[in-house]
UniProtKB/TrEMBL annotation:
<dbReference type="InterPro" id="IPR052358">
    <property type="entry name" value="Aro_Compnd_Degr_Hydrolases"/>
</dbReference>
<dbReference type="Pfam" id="PF04909">
    <property type="entry name" value="Amidohydro_2"/>
</dbReference>
<protein>
    <recommendedName>
        <fullName>Amidohydrolase-related domain-containing protein</fullName>
    </recommendedName>
</protein>
<dbReference type="InterPro" id="IPR032466">
    <property type="entry name" value="Metal_Hydrolase"/>
</dbReference>
<dbReference type="InterPro" id="IPR006680">
    <property type="entry name" value="Amidohydro-rel"/>
</dbReference>
<dbReference type="GO" id="GO:0016787">
    <property type="term" value="F:hydrolase activity"/>
</dbReference>
<feature type="domain" description="Amidohydrolase-related">
    <location>
        <begin position="6"/>
        <end position="215"/>
    </location>
</feature>
Length: 219
């Protein structure tokens, strides 16, 4: 990634890095910032790690202390059921926090198309806490569904955009490096349709919100 940023240049490329707070140096951080790095990532979900609240708080504070002087953000990849622990932590970090993958909810493996009733995202443990955090203004959510009609994902996206249209971002996983063959066109088109009722909303979702989060100067 750093090599790619060096080729793209800091006006065209942005990156988010994983660091060990115990070993990272100020010189490395300065070098990465010059290349276009604008965030740190805390990934518990991919490695199946579960933290108690005190450990999670300490981890995020240490990362925030590294990110804050450079006005970087933090991406947090944790399961949705851990989000309630973040409610009292995130507002005190003093930086922008991005919750990856809509909070990584555990969605049903049975297609919702087999059931005519609409999907209520508030039945997911942790979802109401995620909405509360978004409304504080310190959080940006940004995929996953087993339903062919994407009704669960759409219901969540609808709530996010309603709660905080200036905080939701699109496609930070582009180009889906571990999901070869995924057709994102239907969901992208649905997002455009959802934004059609409010002038400028699509521009925020697809561009402006991410530019602001990653410190990109708009043109």
């Amino acid at each position: 990634m750093l090599a790619a940023l060096a080729k793209l240049g800091p006006t065209r490329g942005r990156g988010v890095v994983v660091v060990d707070p115990n070993t990272i140096t100020q010189e490395e951080l300065d070098e990465w910032h010059a290349l276009g790095v604008r965030g740190l990532r805390v990934n518990l979900q991919s490695v199946g790690k579960v933290m108690e609240r005190n450990e999670l708080e300490a981890t995020l504070i240490r990362h925030a202390d590294i990110a804050r002087p450079r006005n970087w953000m933090i991406e947090v990849y944790v399961p949705l059921k851990m989000i309630p622990m973040l409610e009292s932590i995130v507002p005190r970090l003093g930086i922008t926090v991005c919750i990856d993958h809509f909070g990584s909810p555990e969605l049903s493996s049975i297609s919702l198309c087999e059931n005519d009733s609409p999907f209520d995202p508030y039945t997911l443990p942790g979802f109401s806490s995620l909405i509360s955090l978004i409304r504080t203004g310190s959080l940006c959510p940004y995929r996953l569904t087993k339903d062919a009609g994407m009704r669960d994902l759409k219901a969540m996206a609808r709530e996010f955009l309603s709660a905080a249209p200036d905080r939701v971002i699109y496609a930070t996983d582009w180009p889906h490096t571990r999901f070869t063959g995924v057709d994102i066109s239907p969901f992208t088109e649905w997002c455009l349709d959802l934004c059609a009722h409010e002038p400028g909303l699509a521009e925020k979702l697809f561009r402006r919100n991410t530019e602001r989060m990653l410190g990109v100067e708009s043109t």
